[in-house]
Amino acid sequence: MSPTTRALTAVGLALTAVGVSGWATGGDSPVTQETVTVSAEAGTGAEGAAATASSRSPAAKGLDRFYRQRPDWGPCKDPALAESGTRCAKVTVPLDYAAPKGPTVSLTISRLKATGPKSERRGILQTNPGGPGGHGLGMPAQLRAKMTPGVAAAYDVIGMDTRGLGESSPLDCGLDSLSWFRGAGFDRASFDRVAKKSADDARKCDAKYGDRLAHYSTRNIARDVDVVRGALGERRTSWFGQSYGTYLGAVYAQMFPARVDRLVLDSAMNPRDYGLTMFQAMGPANEKALDDLARWAAPRDGTYRLGKTPAAVRATVEGLVRKAAKQPIQVGGDRLDHESLPFVLYFLGTDDVDNAEYAGTLRLLVDAAEGRQAEPSKRLAGLLDAMFRTGPDQTGTGRDYASTLAILCADSTAPGDAEWYRRAIEKARPKQPVFGPFHNAPMPCGWWKQKPREPRTEIDNALPALQIQATGDTRTTYEQGLGMHKAMRGSKLVTVPVRTHAVFVGYANACADKAVNDYLLTGELPKEDYTCPRG
Fold it and tell me: Span of the secretion signal (predicted)?
């Protein structure tokens, strides 16, 4: 995954361009199917073991037609995906699993078939790139690039745009810019503007979709994952999820434990903190990343001219945000103010291998703030597109953002009192001067009319799982990952002492790569948790 792709993988965790999705009919013939046993929890929401054919509930019986679909594989709409050998198909799922005869949602899935003979094939590996709201059709090609030949021979790798996203009946609330994850600024007027935008975005989504929004929860997405498993004729599935995909994988494992084969969780969150608390935890992590950058840039002041000491570099960055509050910074055709600038800094600090790009972009922004003409780099231009060009005729980020909000707000609640966020920002500001107003900004879920229909899934099981976690992760922090490790009691944790997010796909670490490939190939977890070398 390129730095630009990783950078655009989230608002919070992900607003992705991981792989533009698409589908067309024709091409590959359908895979051979067997009659699939329907899990009772798919229709009822009950946790626990999968049902046998004789113990199907009435609600589950109504799902038979979804599980017995036969995907018609054909070329993906996106030429790059088609060229990679990835094939795409449509699968239909119920909007509401409690009402299987009601409205439906069309999902697009993708597949890279196992490279080996049938005798070497283990089954399917379903995937999710993160988010919520991450485009998933390109994930198989990204994973295949990191697989050893033996692992590539064993798995059909399956991607999916989750319901409401990309090529899967996408939601579009008409949001014209990103409201959430804007810095709430230094003054009352700025805070009020950000709070109003969050509330307005919630109202726009409700006005267009109403109670339909309640059905975009992670629990329903997990049910979609199981329908895809069944439609592919597989009694069990393996899973690779990164970022939000770790939460989705853990929820799936909790709901459908008998359907899980091998489970990889890369850059996991604490399932108990999923939602607002998790985003607030990113503030200190991003301030630390800025300090790391300052220590890197100070000895290179001759190149970047950001300051000769770490304290001076940090002062330059904090001063840049204050300048943007007084006079927005002109970069190309866009203007970065103190509300939007932290969005850029948030993404630039994701990976320690990108320090030179981070420092170079800061130099460009300082020059622009001083009145010198500045044209954005390719990566910065992508971030500005994500921030400012969100309409249906632009980059499409606004529609992805609607999906992100729909999932988060169907899963969790947030305070609907603007003053609550104002207090949280002021409490965080002394220790988080750059990112405190950003990671505590008013969350549209606070004004979301449709509240979660089901309780949050409590993750508490002993299923085997391999977890990969970076110590300097600024999205799903290492402490967040320890929460998942505790909840998934059968997991083994491989720690990678670097600053990155989405280790296996996005960062070159031979030790972590080996851990994932060995587990997928043999099914054997490490005997103990361990830490990889940096390289």
Answer: 1-26
* Interval 412-437: pLDDT, tens: 999 999 999 999 999 999 999 999 99
- Return the CATH architecture of domain 3-174+219-274+461-531: 3-Layer(aba) Sandwich (3.40)
SS3 at position 465: strand
Q: What are the beta bridge partners of residue 492? A: 466
Q: Which residue has the tokens 């002492």?
A: 497
Two structure tokens written together for 440:
């505590």
DSSP sequence for 295-360: HHHGGGHHHH-S-SSHHHHHHHHHHHHHHHHHSPEEETTEEE-TTTHHHHHHHHTS-GGGHHHHHH
- Packing angle between helix 418-428 and helix 276-297, nearest 10 degrees? 30
Evaluate if residue 338 carries a pLDDT over 80. Answer: yes
Q: What share of residues in the chain are helix, strand, coil (percent, to 5)?
A: 45, 15, 40
241-296: pLDDT as tens digits: 999 999 999 999 999 999 999 999 999 999 999 999 999 999 999 999 999 999 99
151: nearest Cα among 511, 515, 502: 515
Provide the token pair at 36.
Answer: 């699939």
Query: Which residue from 292, 295, 231 is spatially nearest to 70, judged by alpha carbons?
Result: 231
Cβ atoms 24, 88 nearer than 8 A: yes
Q: 493: which strand partners?
A: 467
159 close to 130: Cβ distance less than 8 angstroms: no
- Whether the Cβ atoms of residue 135 and residue 127 lie closer than 8 Å to each other: no
Domain segments of the chain as ranges: 3-174+219-274+461-531, 188-209+277-447
Residue 64 and residue 56: Cα distance in Å, rounded?
A: 10
Residue 488 β-bridge partners? 461
Report the distance separating Cα 288 and Cα 514, nearest Å: 29
Q: Is the dihedral of CA 156, 161, 166, 168 positive or negative?
A: positive
Mapped onto helix, strand or coil, the DSSP state of residue 452 is coil
3-state class (DSSP) for residue 352: helix
What pLDDT sits at residue 400?
A: 83
d(CA 221, CA 167): 15
Collapsing DSSP states into helix, strand and coil, what is residue 68? Answer: coil
Nearest CA to 337 among 357, 318, 322? 322
Q: What is the pLDDT of residues 31-41, one digit of tens each?
A: 222 223 333 34
